[in-house]
Amino acid sequence: MGDRVRLNKYLSEAGVCSRRKADEWIQAGRVYVNGVTAQMGMQVSDEDEVVVNGQRICRQQKFELIAFYKPKGYACTAYRGDQSNIFHNFNLDPHLKYIGRLDKDSEGLLLLTNDGDLCNEIAKARNQHEKEYVVTVNRSLTDDFLKGMANGVRINDSNKDQWVVTRPCKVQKKNDKTFSIVLTQGLNRQIRKMCDHYGYKVVKLRRIRVMNILLEGMKPGEIRTVSEAEFTQLQKRIKNGKFQTE
Prior knowledge:
With about 250 residues, the protein is of the alpha+beta class. Helices cover about 25% and strands about 30% of the residues.
């Protein structure tokens, strides 16, 4: 019989969800082991039949973390009914979870992993991990716009149906209509809403960095495995709680 681990860890290693979310699902009676409703703290092995929300789960034996250059026009979803979904169009493993989605009109670096805990750790807004974007807008940038974007903007957080002020962030002018911005939170369509506040429309939005992982050198649609050196550095950043510029 294979090594036994706690059920929440098993589900995380299978890329289903984080351990915390697994505990919530177990408590809600949405997880079954060998046909019986799962209990908190129980242990399982690969020989057990684990079912979540009616779907049988198989633990991934090999850790995966990949970098993908999502082109504009494709959706961060595994729903096969959406013809623009990234998993179908780029032959991505549907067991992988994306870390910090990009909307359909945006492009750039998207990390995907089968480690639910890693996904949750990077995506949590409270951990303030950096994500950097290059943005082109429809008219010339002003000092007031750049300063306002950096200081924080009042926008509607549609996920919570409430108004929030975005965290202060780093903003740097690149040319007349293009700037870079480093966010430590991931509100829905945040950059577009921030620009809208000042009467600007986003023409192009590209994510170029997630913590220490860079888009540099990649082409739209390209997929690569995150290197061991990159992952080691990523773990250090996570342990430190937040990205620090060297």
